[in-house]
Design a protein that fits this description.
Helices cover 54% and strands 18% of the residues. It is α+β, with helices and mostly antiparallel strands and 530 residues long. The strands form 5 sheets. A 6-stranded mixed sheet has the order 11-10-16-15-9-12. It is elongated and about 110 Å long. Belongs to the SecD/SecF family. SecD subfamily.
Length: 530
Amino acid sequence: MLRFSTWKSIAIVAMTLAAILVVAPSMLSPAHYEQLKARLPAWLTPPTIVLGLDLQGGSHVMLEVDQADLLNTQIRNLRDDVRRILREEKVAITGGIGTIPRGVQVRVADPADREKILPKLRQLRNSFSANLMGGPSPLDVEASPEGVIRITVTDLGLTDKSRRAVEQSIEVIRRRVDALGTREPSIQRQGDDRVLVQVPGLQDPEQLKTILGQTAKLEFRLVADPGQNPGETEELEQTDQEGKILIEKQVMVQGEDLTDAQPGFDQQRSGEPVVNFRFNIRGAQKFGDVTSKNVGRLFAIVLDNKVISAPRILTPITGGSGQISGHFTVEQANNLAILLRAGALPAKLNIVEERTVGPGLGQDSIDAGKRAAYVGAALVVVYMLITYGVFGVFANLALFVHIAFIFAGLALLGATLTLPGIAGIVLTIGMAVDSNVLIYERIREENHAGRSILASLDAGFNRAFATIVDSNVTMFVAAAILYFLGSGPVRGFAVSLALGILTTIVTAVTMTRMMIAVWYHYARPTKLPI
């Protein structure tokens, strides 16, 4: 039991030194950390412990799906689908495709044509919603004797679209926030139509609002020619110059076909900031076809229903890449590239609540957590020294290594340390010492029963080990449940608790046993000091 191989001792010492090295960068000031980072190669960036919103401050934003904008988007999609069906079936209509408050309508005078397209229009229900099978319809399709066909969005269909928009928005928001260079944002769904975004360490809420406030819906449309059907065109505002411009409603290429977007500078003309983009195969084919068939026409680049620029197509663009210019600043070009890379939000999100947590409040929490940890650790250290003497020294040394292992694990995992996480660490301090108490009390009982020193030590570790494992496994299961079922700070508590449980097995059992083995080898006691 007290025979430790050399490689085991070296492994334990190496793990301890490695944990200290991993934790050390987190103890540095931001300025010193940046100096250390600059001296090391890029692939050897030292990890640090990420502090949560309650510890370092940051931005808190509540977003809500704009129901009116979502409904307008669905009406536009319905109009495009109806136009496609009419073209496929070669059905003539009177007066174009009109819009009504919650849908679209068309007038088909020929009864035979109406009977031909009604089944196709009713099939739009299946593509409109994916999870209303067998339930109430998300779309109402009605035909009047006069030949007017109305397709309207029901309340159930709008609610379902809102819920799905939130689900899709969460991942888009995460990609956008990560591109800002921040770490560990908390993005959670709130009800059917809201998203909560918390970004620790970001003290500039305006930058976050700029990134989150745009849907980044990019479209490429042709500028309308004079005399085109008014029902097929619309006027949109321009961002690069005053006034509005008339463009076609039909979207030729959508931004969802983009594979990359990067800020850059126009090398051929003024050197102003631009955004260079690249399409996937499908987008490149569409873009090439449109530019080949419309040489000489103006091609509008539309972002969130505003025309960024409308350059003239001079030659076919078949390479699958292009450039967006619009008198941008460097920051605007960078933000636009982030938005396009992350993808478009499925609906407009309005900011309904905004809070900035200052670093002062976070510092108060850190100070309170430190005091609790210091007082708790000090009381444990004193108790172990008074109760178990030299064995208490071994337990205290193992306790400090235990804490280092926890912080090293947090840094390597990139987990966020919150105030509840600090509470979890304080809890694991008591749990780690409790394991040593079980071992020492068992050793004391065996020694009082008349066993030799070696036999008492061996029995203490072997017989207490099963109890330690059982209790820690139970706590680990509880931590896992908290992690998978909880969110936010509850997860932070679960992570620190789980790490503390895992390191307890190493420090309270293996490391303590190694130190006792070394002590016994050199001290050769005739009586246990316990």
